[in-house]
Design goal:
Layout: H1 4-24, H2 29-43, H3 50-74, H4 81-104, H5 107-126, H6 140-157, H7 162-171, H8 176-202, E1 212-213, E2 216-217, H9 218-239, H10 244-264
Antiparallel strand pairs: 1-2
């Protein structure tokens, strides 16, 4: 059983994850994964599966965060359910494949892949790089392929996919607030399928701590969800009231610092 200090840390990161999920439509996993990695390391959880535990637990929290976030956006009419329905089949298959692949990889490789992804996302946000809205939402085949790629990558880095789906939807002429709202809804099937995959693949793993269900660490899940479900709705309100572009740049600097710290710890 984790000590009181770890329970408080899980609650604190739940607050941050919920606000970020509602504000930027990114599910919060991009903050939760490195936080869990450091907290799990400090707790002395088995190193052999510590990254899989961080990824699986992050995705499990996103199930709940995504529900709170997309409901808040949907009340403002900012979710395109037609896009959600067309992209979900590919999302489900890609997510299940991604969780299986992650279970076969080493913690070191997954950590390196996550660091590279953090640098990509932070630079994209810092420079405000986004595709010009030059096309429309693709047909069934294009959405299935897109969903498969988003689901696969999202499960390798333990996120809700908003860092990929928001730029994609913007490219397809979807207004930014609707893109963020729709991305928050798409995070649900990503997280649900991924969590199932991490649960199933983790059941046979040897180096899994007690109080875990597969690659999901239950105390961290409970602590983070307890706060993120509450704060996600406030993040959604802020998304419609604050200069999101400015906030993204500040958040990008934070991600750069996290990525650099994780990279440094690999040597």
């Amino acid at each position: 059983m984790p000590s009181l200090s770890f329970w408080l840390a899980y609650l604190a990161f739940g607050v941050v994850a919920g606000i970020i999920a509602g504000l930027l439509g990114v599910g919060g996993g991009i903050v939760v994964v490195p936080a869990l990695y450091w907290l799990f390391t400090a707790q002395g959880l088995p190193q052999a599966t510590i990254m899989q535990m961080a990824l699986g637990t992050s995705l499990a929290t996103i199930i709940f965060t995504s529900i709170a976030s997309y409901r808040a956006h949907d009340r403002r009419g900012a979710v395109r359910w037609d896009i959600f329905k067309s992209i979900t089949p590919g999302i489900l298959i890609g997510s299940l494949c991604g969780s299986w692949v992650a279970a076969q990889l080493s913690t070191k490789f997954l950590k390196g892949f996550f660091v590279a992804f953090l640098y990509y996302v932070s630079i994209q946000m810092l420079l405000n790089i986004k595709p010009k809205p030059t096309r429309q939402v693709p047909g069934t085949g294009g959405m299935f392929a897109t969903g498969g790629i988003v689901g696969l990558v999202s499960n390798l880095v333990g996120i809700g996919g908003g860092t990929m789906t928001v730029p994609f939807l913007t490219w397809c002429n979807v207004p930014i607030h609707v893109a963020v709202g729709t991305a928050s809804a798409i995070g649900l099937p990503i997280a649900a399928a991924g969590t199932i995959g991490y649960l199933a693949n983790g059941l046979a793993a040897k180096d899994v701590p007690s109080l875990s269900l597969g690659f999901v660490y239950l105390p961290a899940l409970i602590g983070i969800v307890a706060m993120s479900m509450w704060t996600a709705k406030y993040g959604a309100k802020l998304a419609h009231a604050l200069p999101v572009a400015t906030l993204k740049r500040v958040f990008a600097l934070f991600l750069l610092a996290m990525a650099t710290r994780m990279l440094w710890s690999m040597f």
